[in-house]
Amino acid sequence: MSLRPKPARWFEVLVDRNEISNAAEALAHTGLVEIVARQDSKEQVGAPELQEKLQEFTRLSQRYSHYWPQHDLHVSGTAGTADARLGQAIQRINSWRFDADPLITRIESLQSEFKELELITEWLQELQQSQIDFSLVGKQRGIIAERLFMVPEKIPMTHYPHSLLVKEVMHGDKLYLYALGPQRQLDQLKSNLQPFKSKTVSLPTWMQGNSNDTLSAVRNRSDKITTELEKHTASLHALCDSWNMCEALGDLMQLQWFIGNVGDQAVSQNFAWLSGWTSDIDGRKLEDAMQSAGIKGLVSYPPPPVERERPLVMDNPVWAKPFEVFASLLGTPGANEADPAKLLALIVPLIFGYMFGDVGHGLLLAAAGWYFHKRWPALGVLFACGISAMIFGFVFGSVFGNEHLLTPLWTYPVEQPLPVLMVPLAGGAVLLLLGMLMNSIEAWWAGQFRNWLLCEAPIVLMYLSIIALFFNSSALLVLVLALGWYLLGNFFVSQEERLKNMLLSLGALLEVMFQLVVNTVSFIRVGAFALAHAGLSLAFVTMADSIDSVFFKVFVLILGNAIVILLEGLVVSIQTTRLVLFEFFIRFLRAEGRTLRPLKAPDHEFLKRRKE
Predict the structure, then answer these.
(1) Residue 314 and residue 545: Cα distance in Å, rounded?
(2) Spatial distance between the Cα atoms of 606 and 74, rounded to a whole number of angstroms
(3) Which pLDDT value is given to residue 45?
(4) 546/260 Cα distance (integer angstroms)
């Protein structure tokens, strides 16, 4: 089992020049490649003329995208360079636009009228008891005119311009003002209402009769508009089909994604190259993706360019993958650093389960982790921690906070708190020693093991001797010998000013030893939280036992366990993360590596239709 992160592989894909965007999409959907452009070709795909055509497509999209198909977009099967495919697709969209413009103009006109009629309908519904006759007031007569305003909310106006007849009605939160009077006064009212985000509603000239008659006429007109809109929309869809817009848009949007995300790629007259880094260590998934998309090409894995910084891949089995999230909080382990995910698959559940030991609570956490881990893979950590909590629930004899259903395999935490506190202390010492062991392995990988033996190994021995002092006073001799070893080691490692460096190293030793002692003692919190979890659970069980009503007894138990799971679960998760990051990782993990930046796949799978 290797703990060392694996370097990403350099790959190169040679394809027909016409297939470069399709090949890039197929690779992107694997999520395993980071594209890096080659610099050994004068001719490249991302040329300025392609950018100009894409800008034209962007302008067309801003105007017409609302009327284009949004689904089933796919690339054309016609061979052609990126420049040729862009030109053909834009020409097809312009041809569609020539036929579609009259329909779109009519659709937009009808939609605008329909929205106005919706507002008029709301207004007329509030006027059904009014005696207004629109046959008399609904026409402009000389200098007298009418105007309807809609204001989103009630306005603080106490009076209106002189010579105006104004009727207010409310519809929900909207205020409708129907005003009749001279044109100049209406314009003044419109100006006064502008700060309140008012809208002037156009009243049809065909409004006749009272509000009920007019409302019926408005509804009839709305129904006719709806029918006409459906007819024109169907015609527009048929027009999209006749010009095969799904294919034209598929080509354009794929090429837009390609030029924007993949960048300049080297091409010759007939061929194109895609190159970069991949986390496909075995080298099979890239070829499978190409074959699955029906793209003929040659995938090779030559030595990487020396000037390129190689990304590193945390290549872990499925059961350890969720635990990569802890190292990712700091960054990516370097080439000579250990990837701790496999170790954390044991360490994290042990720490969490000890603090959260309960069969029932652990079962619920494990079920939640199992249910959600397919959507959020990192929640696989929750599943493992839930299983561990169940195991420690049997150790502590706790089921949903009740300590009378099971006989503990070890002890009840509340009854014997001292052993519960001391075990994590010993476990913390082991974890710190493991961190120092990982540091020694990294020194071996980096070719610095001699320095580690001279300067770091005596620190490990001193730490062990301090622990042994609690059991045997003769360990003091080992401590003194380890101190001498440390000082001599720093003396030999130093190349100049050895006395000064020895004094500095002595100060550094005091800091490191104090830090180790504090870090060790901090693991007592694991036992403390185990006691807190048991005590809080017991408090709710005791509270429920004191209630005579069965209903309220069950209610208190359910509410109490919910509080324990949510509150204690959050606190224990935070403490587990803290111990891993600041007590364990600090011993060996510097996160000096660069992670792979996978090429983002396009929103649509444009190659889907092609594969079918």
Answers:
(1) 51
(2) 4
(3) 57
(4) 68
